[in-house]
Amino acid sequence: MDLKKVYEFSYDYLLKEAKDFLSEDKIEDHVSTPDAKNCDSMIAAYEFLLVILQDFNRYPNVIKYFDRKDEIKRILHNYDLEYIASLTKEELYSTFKSTFGLQTKMMWERYAKGIITGASFMLTFKDYADFKSTFDSFDDNDMTREALALLLSTKIYNMGFALACDWLKELGYYQYAKPDTHTKDICAALNLAADNDDIGCFEAMVKIAKAAEVDAYKVDKVWWLICSGNFYRYNVKLPLAGSPKLKENFIAALKKEFL
User: Fold this and answer.
1) Quick check: 116 and 87 in contact, CB under 8 A?
2) Is there a contact between 13 and 250 (Cβ–Cβ < 8 Å)?
């Protein structure tokens, strides 16, 4: 299979699907630049970590970080990392419960523990320059990039390899791609990785990116936007956004073209 053509077909497919709703320049911007492109401090990196930690399965609809971020920031003393690291998950959950009137315990407790262990991890660095230089040192080759994502998955509770990749790619490390439900289904359909294989999917997207001479970030975003139909950066949703039909139609087109 010509992996370069897989990417080119995917990109052209996205342009065709979105052409009536967004300009090509805006589509290119969305697939080329990370959400946290202006991250320049420990607090900014940590705040984006809180977004990532609730960005899987049903968590976004339960945590609702963007709806509650002002209150969460107040509870966390404006992201005072030393204060946050001193908390227990029970203490933080109790505060969340009394503030938001929570009915769901398990996900909030896990989110609370992720918040606390994330702060503890960030405190291992002297400052943002130390944090950045450490992460940069892993950005030399595919093996060390993969190793950093695996390391983060052991340091920050409830993160996992996929969310670690997500945090890194959105912090501006362009050779990361997130193996989420969409990208894993695509890789499995093309026989590029085993079904539901996070690392296999990550490695497949990296190979596609190299073949096409683009960043892995771009492969990730092209596929995610095709499957979700949600150009959230511009508050634009394509018809059928959120429907499995978008992904099903795309996978059918890929199979017809390449298998």
Assistant:
1) yes
2) yes
